[in-house]
Amino acid sequence: MLGIAAAVLFFIAFLINAAEISTNHVFASGNVMLLGLTVLALHVAGIGSGWAGRTRRR
Q1: Does the keyword Transmembrane helix apply (predicted)?
Q2: 3-class secondary structure, 17
Q3: What gap in Å lies between CA 48 and CA 51, rounded to an integer?
Q4: 29, 13 Cβ separation under 8 angstroms
Q5: Element (H or E) spanning 16, and its range?
Q6: What would the pLDDT profile of 1-58 be if each residue is shown by its tens digit?
Q7: Nearest-5° Cα angle at 34, 8 to 53
Q8: DSSP category for residue 50
Q9: Domain ranges of the chain
Q10: Predicted TM-score of the model (pTM)
């Protein structure tokens, strides 16, 4: 799920950069790209993958 969120953030950063939309400093394309990289790193680390850890059945 976080991988999809990262892809959406990268696409938004691309649109901001390609369309040369003037935004404030918080939503600049570089900042949105860094948020996407953070979310992608969390996805690769296994956080938010939807899998519950190892469980025992008896």
Answers
A1: yes
A2: helix
A3: 8
A4: yes
A5: helix 2-18
A6: 888 889 999 998 888 888 888 888 777 888 889 999 999 998 888 887 666 666 666 6
A7: 70
A8: S
A9: 2-45
A10: 0.70
The distance in angstroms from the start CA to the end CA of the chain is 31
The number of helix segments (H) and strand segments (E) in the chain equals: 2, 0
Backbone dihedral region for residue 50 (phi beyond 0: left; psi -120 to 50: alpha; all else: beta): left
User: What DSSP designation does 15 have?
Assistant: H
Q: Extract the tokens encoding 16.
A: 């901001």
Q: Alpha carbon 38 to chain centroid distance?
A: 6
Instruction: Copy the structure tokens of residue 42.
Output: 């969390």
Q: Could you tell me which residues come within 8 angstroms of residue 15 by beta carbon, excluding any fewer than 6 positions away?
A: 21
